[in-house]
Amino acid sequence: MSKNTRSRNISKLIILALVLFVPGFLYIMVNKMGSNEYVKLPVFGEKSLSGKMNRVMGREIPDTVFHQLKPIEFQNYDGKPITFLGNDTSIYVAHLFYTKDEGLSKQLMQDMSTIANRFKANPQVELFSISVDPHDGPKELQEFIKPFAESMNPHWDVVSKPSVDIFSYARESMLIEAMPVVGDSNKFVISNQLVLIDSKKRIRGLYDISLRTEVDRLEDEIKVQLVEEFRNKPIKVERK
Length: 240
Prior knowledge:
Elements: H1 3-33, E1 47-56, E2 59-66, E3 72-76, E4 81-84, E5 91-97, H2 104-118, E6 125-131, H3 138-144, E7 156-160, H4 166-174, E8 178-181, E9 184-190, E10 193-197, E11 203-208, H5 214-232
Parallel strand pairs: 5-6, 6-7
Antiparallel strand pairs: 1-2, 3-4, 3-7, 5-10, 8-9, 10-11
């Protein structure tokens, strides 16, 4: 047998061994490490046990009650009423702002426009920019959003005039900071975070826009959450 023939035979044996054994080895490693489970985002806020048990995959799991937001009403920038968290099949990204703020509010809107562009074709991702200023109405909102006109789409709502106290709602429900500035009715303290909320109205992410990588992380985690939503509510195909 020539040296070249022997080398080819050895190469074939190595390739055959890789084909036969590597997939099985990887499968064992994946299962050992637990990496075969889908990635899930954390749920923010207080948690408690309901006292009930749920049976999952043959195991009894304690039922957990998570922090949830309640839907509230706003006036949209076009003057029409709109419900925040009114759709139980959508996920939401929300933040606070006010039109007299040329600093943080403009940056939050700019980052939101980035998300709006990336998910403009997906109606399941709804965006809410929420004004905390009681003086902001449709006229002020429409003027404020002019620089972002190219990014505006039917899934991005810029709203004001909440049906509840927005400062309490922000702190207690959205888990972000918001308060009026004492002695100056034109200024407000608002959070620099974008909030990701799932279809069950639970907070799944908080993103500090002062960090450069946070908008990219939000984009990635929106995709992760969309996968979870699809797995929890798969499309039903009717059989004829």
